[in-house]
Amino acid sequence: DVSECETGAHNCSQMCRNTAGGFTCHCYTGFQLDEDNTCIDINECLDNNGGCERSCTNTPGSHQCSCGDGYRLRPDNATCVDYDKCEYLNTCTQRCINQVGYYTCACDAGFHLHTDGKTCLPDVPCTEENTCSLAPAGLCGQVGGQDRCSCTSGYTLQEKDQATCIEVDGVTLNQCDDLAACVNTLGNYRCHCRGGYSITEDGRTCEDVDECAVDNGSCEQECHNTIGSYWCSCRRGYEIGPDGYSCIDKNECVLPEDNTCSRRAECINTVGGYTCRCLPGYEGDGLVCADVDECAIGNGGCAGTCENTMGSLRCHCRQGMKLGANGRDCIGQCFII
Predict the structure, then answer these.
(1) Would the N or C end of the chain have less CB density within 10 A of its end CB?
(2) Long-range interactions of 50-58: CB distance < 8 A, separation 24+
C-alpha cells in the first residue's frame, strides 16, 4: 500500500491519515472539513454566543470571551464579574461609589459635583482669608462655619496639614502587576504592559495576547501562540522562510533522510511533497523497488542466452559467435587458416 500521506499525494489542508488503498483528511479542533478536503474555521460564537456571558470573538480554530469595561472575566473564561473600580480606577476627589460595571463620584456635605463628574466644588466658597493653600489646585468651602479644604481632580490633600494639595503620584500608588510598567500621569497613573500582553479591564493586570487570533499572526500556514509571544511553522512539505512568516517548498529529494524513496528509485520533488519512481529495470511503488527479470519476456531480446542482472540484463552468444554492437544480436566470426 502506498502512503499518500507520506509521499504528499493527497489534497488534505491539515491532517492526512493513510488507509488501505487510500487516505482520509481530518481537521484540527475548531475546524470542519468541506467537500474539497479543505478545513474551514468553525465560528463558535454563532452557537449560544460561544458560551460567553457577554462578548464572543471568533478566532481561527477557537474563540475568546470578553466582558468590556467595568467587568472582569472569571477563571472559567466565559462568565463575567463586577469588580471594585473605586479601588483601581478611582479619579474622584472626595467619594467614590462602585456601581455594577462602572463607578460614580459623590461629594461630602457642603460640596457639589462639577460637570467633569470627578471634582467637588464648594457650595459656599471661603473668604479670601482662609486656612487652605489654594495653589496650584486647592479648593475651599465653608461647612458649618469652618473652612473645609479640597482639591481638584488629580490632586489630594497632604495628610500632615489637610490644607495643601499635592499631585497624586501614580508611581507611588502603583498597583500594576509584574508584567507592566507604571507610567505616571497628572494626578494618576496608568499601567503599560510589555510586548505580547494587553491590559485587562481592571487597568492594572496584564494578560497574554493571542497574536494568532488576528490575521493568523501574519503566519502563512500555522501559528502557535505562546505566553507573551508566538511563532510560525509550516505543514509537511514546506519549511519556514527567512522572514519567519512565509512558507517555501521544501525539496525533500536533496537529502536522503528527508524522503522515503527506495535507493533504487528516483525522488521527484513536488510543491509541498514529493513522489518516488522506480529506476529503469526495477518495478514497484517507488518506496520499495524490485528487480525486473527482463529475460523472462522474449528472452530479453537476446539472440543467444539472456542473463538477468540487477536493474538490467546481459546477452551472451554461443562459442564461435560474438555479440553485435546493439548488445543483443550474435554474429559469426571468421577464422583464417
Answers:
(1) C
(2) 51/78, 52/78, 53/78, 53/79, 53/80, 54/80, 57/213
Find the farthest-apart pair of alpha carbons in the chain and give their distance in angstroms, rounded: 155
Over range 132-151, report the average pLDDT: 84
173 has pLDDT over 70: no
Q: Does residue 335 carry a pLDDT above 80? A: no
DSSP state of 204: S
At residue 6, does pLDDT exceed 80? no
- Least trusted range by pLDDT, from 37-41, 63-67, 133-137: 133-137
CB burial string 51-74: b at 16+ within 10 A, e below: ebbeebbbbbbbbbbbbeebbebe
What 8-state DSSP symbol labels residue 237? T
Count other Cβ atoms within 10 Å, centred on residue 226: 12
Q: Which grid cell is 194?
A: 510589555
Which CATH number is 256-291's, of 3.30.420.40, 3.40.50.300, 3.90.1150.10, 2.10.25.10? 2.10.25.10
Question: Residues 225, 226, 228, CA angle at the centre, nearest 5°?
Answer: 115
**Bridge-based pairing state of the strands 312-316 and 305-309:** antiparallel
User: Residue 131, Cα to own-chain centre: how many angstroms?
Assistant: 61
Could you give phi then psi for residue 166, rounded to 5 degrees? -125, 150
Do residues 327 and 315 make contact, with C-beta atoms less than 8 angstroms apart?
yes
Tell whether domain 86-167 is in CATH 2.60.40.
no
| Cβ count near 272 (within 10 Å) | 16
Q: What pTM was estimated for this model as a whole?
A: 0.42
Q: Which fold does the domain 294-332 belong to in CATH?
A: Laminin (2.10.25)
Torsion of CA 256, 260, 266, 268, to 10 degrees: -90
Q: How high does pLDDT run on average in the chain?
A: 84
* Domains 86-167 and 294-332 alike in fold: yes
pLDDT at 171: 47
Helix, strand or coil, per DSSP, at residue 105: strand
Instruction: Identify the helix (H) or strand (E) that includes residue 4.
Output: helix 4-7
Domain chopping of the chain, boundaries = 86-167, 256-291, 294-332
